[in-house]
Specification:
7 strands; seven-stranded mixed β-sheet
Length: about 200
């Protein structure tokens, strides 16, 4: 199987991106991460990617205002120019339009810090604590037009401790995210490769 040219989209520090880049450097890993794109110029993950020798580009969403489709058209131009075949969202804090999602259907995944379908959206750790959940975790899923609603690829669980706050719980979940996402990306790329015409 040839390796699939993959882009990671970020908005922040890029810790999950870094875990994916480490995996991509391993022999036999099916995703060849050639590009990191951030919608924020100040995202720490941009420098991290460049330090690993990976091209990192900023497509700042702010000049586009409320025109999400125009921002995504600029993003798509960057992806198409590099023949990207798969996208991994890793802390990319933009809600994508149905048009962009449709264009990448079956070729775009996301990691979310909850055990979906519980706690879609933001503030998942605080919400899990407020609900009195005994366990929490993270989910890698296919991206669909509905927020955090695509089919689950993989999940990892952590117990909620009696003395947890949102920060301690988030830190334990993040460890699992870094373990889970590289394996789930590999699985997703292999699924896509098998379903290709």
């Amino acid at each position: 199987m040839s390796r699939v040219l993959t882009a990671v989209l970020i908005s922040g520090g890029g810790s999950n991106m870094d875990a994916l880049l480490r995996a991509s450097a391993e022999p036999g890993y099916p995703a060849d991460i050639r590009l990191v794109v951030s919608n924020r110029p100040d995202a720490g993950g941009v420098a991290k990617a460049r330090s690993r020798g990976v091209e990192a580009i900023v497509v700042d969403h702010r000049p586009f205002g409320a025109d999400r489709a125009a921002f995504e058209a600029a993003l798509q131009d960057v992806l198409a120019a590099r023949s990207i075949g798969f996208i991994a969202l890793a802390g990319f804090m933009r809600i994508l339009t149905p048009g962009f999602v449709s264009l990448w259907r079956g070729r775009m995944i996301n990691i979310h810090p909850s055990l979906l379908p519980r706690f879609k959206g933001l503030d998942t750790h605080a919400r899990a604590l407020a609900a009195g959940d005994a366990e929490h975790g993270c989910t890698v899923h296919w991206v669909t037009p509905e927020l955090d609603d695509g089919a689950v690829i993989a999940q990892a669980r952590v117990p909620v401790m009696p003395d947890d706050d949102a920060h301690t719980l988030a830190a334990r979940v993040l460890v699992e995210e870094h373990r889970l996402y590289p394996k789930a990306l590999a699985d997703a790329v292999r699924i896509m490769d098998r379903s290709a015409p």
